[in-house]
Specification:
about 260 residues; alpha/beta; 2 domains; globular
Length: about 260
């Protein structure tokens, strides 16, 4: 797959899944607009060997005005977005009666509404050029639920629904819209959960990993950000021209149960 001359915007891409996808797209020649918090200069430096242009925009994905500014930045710097990866997300765990209202609002805004805003702003140019890719990073929780994660489950189910609706709206164009639904992915945030579990239960990190996986993921293997990045590359390829509205599970059998 050659994405030279294309521009990809990946939200929530300064670490974890988003960074893995951005790196895979850069390997195929795509210029990048990264988004997220933290030391973005160090993140941008990871792309130095790919011979592509990489910019960072720190838009807060809760704020429609900042999202509009980020999309305008991409239009000014790169003449628009060809590949849009909606990855930004946060989590909070609590039963619904104890769920903080502000956390619910933030999760829905970042995990769901932000994808609406980026998509509505990216689609006119994609349609005009008759080529584009929107890849929404959903979750196994976009297909099935878990207790204590009502806002996350609602948002991720919403992302899958949004994906299907946009895929139908673009069905006769060169724009495709699909969702990737990962299960447990070994990211820094998940590693923190494993380490905390090991400490709390006074078990090894290896045992904590096995126990975490055994609860949901039959393969007992983590998916890697790099694997998700390669799937994103495939969805950008001509082989995926007629893959539309898919909710592609990468979950080690989680949702097959």
């Amino acid at each position: 797959m050659n994405l030279k001359g294309k521009t990809a915007l990946v939200t929530g891409s300064t670490s974890g899944i988003g960074l893995g996808i951005a790196l895979s797209l850069a390997r195929q020649g795509a210029n990048l607009v990264l988004n997220g918090f933290g030391d973005h200069a160090a993140v941008v430096a990871q792309f130095a060997t790919f011979g592509v242009s990489v910019e960072h925009h720190g838009a807060d994905m809760r704020e429609p005005g900042e999202i509009e500014a980020m999309m305008s930045f991409a239009n000014t710097r790169f003449s628009g977005v060809d590949v849009l990866v909606n990855n930004a997300g946060i989590q909070h765990v609590a039963n619904v009666e104890a769920f903080p209202i502000e956390r619910w609002d933030a999760i829905i805004a970042i995990n769901l509404s932000s994808a609406f805003h980026t998509s509505r702003l990216a689609l006119p140019r994609m349609k005009a050029h008759n080529w584009g890719r929107i890849i929404n990073i959903a979750s196994s929780h976009g297909l099935v639920a878990s207790a204590g994660k009502s806002a996350y489950v609602a948002a991720k189910h919403g992302i899958v629904g949004l994906t299907k609706a946009l895929a139908l709206e673009t069905a006769t164009t060169g724009v495709t819209v699909n969702a990737i639904c990962p299960g447990w992915v070994l990211t820094p945030l998940v590693q923190q959960q494993i380490d905390a579990r090991a400490m709390t239960e006074r078990i090894s990190v290896e045992q904590a990993s096995r126990e975490l996986l055994a609860e949901k993921q039959p393969s007992l293997q983590f998916t890697t950000p790099q694997q998700l990045g390669e799937l994103a590359v495939f969805l950008c390829s001509p082989a995926a021209d007629n893959v539309r509205g898919a909710a592609w599970a990468v979950d080690g059998g989680w949702t097959a149960q």
